[in-house]
Amino acid sequence: MNFIKELLSDRDKVSHNLKMIFWGIGGLLLLVGFYGWAIRFFNGHIKANYGSIVTWGLWVAAYIYFIGLSAGSFLVSSMVYVFNFKKFERIGKLAVFTALVTLLMALLSIWVDLGHMGRAWHVMVFPNFKSPMAWMIYLYSIYMLLLFVEIYFLLRYDFVTGSNNETLKGKLYKLFSLGSTDKSEESKLRDKKIVKRLATAGVPIAILFHGGVGALFGVVAARPHWHSGLFPILFLLSALVSGGALLTLISSIFQEGWSKNKEIVIELGKMVLALLLLDILFQVSEFLVAYRGGIPGHTAGFDLVISGPYAWVFWGWQGFIGTIVPIVILVLPTRKSPRWVALAGFLIAAGIFGLRLNIVIPGLAVEEIHGLTSAIYSHRVDPHYFPSISEWLLTFGIVGFGMLLFGLGEHFLPTHNESETESLSESKV
Asked: How far is Cα 385 from Cα 372, in angstroms, rounded to an integer?
C-alpha cells in the first residue's frame, strides 16, 4: 500500500511540475509580448519588416495557424459529441475549450496586422459578400458564439453543483451558471442533447470557415503559388493534424496523460500519424503537379520554398523537426510511451507553423514584375522578408496569452468526472 501511495505521489509531482513549467513559460511569453504590443500601438507597422512586395508576414501566418488549431480541435471534439467516439470522451471538453482559446489567439493575430485596428468592425457593418473574407468574418462570429454556448451546456451541471461552495471557484461557478439551478438527471440529459445538436451544426461551420481560409488564398490568380483547388483541402487536413497534435500535448499536461490517461494520448498519436501521412501525400502532390507542368510562375514559389532563402524552414523546421522526427517516434516502440507521443505532438504542431510560413511568405516573395526589386532601392521593396524583433515579441505575447488562458481554464473550470461514465449514446436526439 505504501508503494502505491508513493507511486501516486510521484505521478502527482510530475503533473504539478508540468503545469508549473507551462505556467512559467506562458507568463514569460506574455511579459515579453507586452513590449511587442507597445511597439505596435505606438509605432503602427513601421517596425514590422513586411512592405510593398511581401505585404503579409508573421502575423498572417500565425493567424492561419491558430485558426487551423481551432478548427482541428473542434473537429476532434465532434468525434465525441457527434459520432460518439468513446475513446476520446475524456478530452471532449478540453477539445472544445482549446478550440475557443486558439480562435481568440487567431483573431488577435489578424487584428494586429490591420493597418487601422480600430476599423475592424467595418467588415461586419459594411461587408462585401463577394469577398471570401467577409464570409469568413461572419462564420467566425457564428462559430465563436457556438463555442461559448456549447461550453456552457457542457459545464452547466458542474457549475450548478459547484456554485454552493463559498470559495472563489464556487462564486465563479454561480456566475457562470447564469442563474440555472436545475440539478436533475433530466437536465443533464437535456444538456447532452443540446451539445450534440450544437456540435453537429458546428462541423460544417468549422469546415466552411477554415476551408474558406484556404479559398481566400486559392482564389488569388495573381499568385500562382496559392492558386490551387487543393488549398481548401490542404488547410483542413493541416488543421486536423495540428489540432490533434496540440490536444496530444495539452491532454498530457492537464489530464495526467503520462499516467492516468496515457491510453488517450497514445490513441491520439495514432490518429495524428495517419492524418500527417495523408497531409504529406497532398503536399507532395502539389509539388509534383507544379514541377511536372513546368510553368515558371507556378514553380517560382516552390523554388523559394525548397532552395531559396526560406529553404531552412522547409527542410529543417517543417521537414525534419516537424515531420521526420515525430514520424520516427510514432512508428518505433516509442509510440507506446505517452511521454514520447506528447513530444511528437509538440513537434508536429510546431512543424505545421513552419508550413504556414511556407504558404504565406514565398507566395508573396515572387516578383510580379521581373527586376522590380533591383530597380527600386528601398527596404520596403525587398522580397527577402524576415520577421522583426517586434513581430516575434508580439506573437510570443499572443502565445503566452493563450497558454495562460489554458492554465486558468484548467484551474477554474470543472474537469471530467471519472465517476461519470454515462455513454453519450444514451442521449436521445
From this structure: 16
